[in-house]
Model the fold of this input.
Amino acid sequence: MAYDPSSILLTDRVAFVTGVGQGIGRATALMLARFGATVAMCDKNRDALDDTAAAVASTGRPALARHLDVRDRTAVASFVADAVDAHGRIDTLVNNAGGTFFAPFLDVSTKGEDTLVLENFTQVTTLVRLVVPHMPAGGSIVNLTSIEAHQAAPGFAVYGAMKAALAHLTRTLALELAPRHLRVNAVAPDAIPTEGDRDVRSEMLGGDAGYEPAVVPPLGAVGHPDDAAAVVVFLASDLARFVTGTTIHVDGGNWAAGGWRRVSGASFPSEDRTG
Done:
């Protein structure tokens, strides 16, 4: 296999991206379009969706946008069908949509837990089942997880568990879908400030959390949503034709550094233990 600069291009491929209203989802939709893809996108925030759709259209690439909540299976199925009717196939599925809130595990209600499970895991399994039958050989599924899939997540227990489940699902689907010549990978971002992350961090710090995530990663600066989007483009491209079943950490080194640090309540025994 000879690679050349064109191997990164996604010319005329069809990408389906969820949660494009802000942050990494918006950056991903735009970068996929800039590298030649036709993008079908959705978000539950209509104004944010319209803004991203206009930005994607300005690249000159075709775009299909739908205002919906990914937890609504009927709406998602309808949009997938419309995307396939319009473009004939889906080459890349980017499961970006998700969300969380800060709360100690014992304070999370049954309704809150069900919402976290549906928003961060079940909607992904729904989309995979709907999209895979329309993916040609060489297709790529990219699941956005989080550093919380790979470390403890105090205050975000259910969210972290669902991201861990998604990381596991990624590996299993990589094997199950390999005979179809489809690749399945995950991207685990951290230290990439977005509007949603800032809101959640404010909740956490305002809730007298006993822990907080590392602020500045080992590389010495925070990242940008484009940093995660660039990895998604790579995984969608022919350059990643032999990459499947793995997670790429886009976090400036935070996962390698261990992530969380204790910020309150630390104490040591007062008795002498040297004797």
Q: What stands out?
A: The beta strands are 14-18, 38-43, 63-67, 92-95, 140-144, 183-189, 211-213, 247-250, 260-262. Helices lie at 23-34, 46-57, 73-87, 110-131, 157-177, 195-206, 225-236, 254-257. Confidence is low (pLDDT under 50) at residues 268-275.
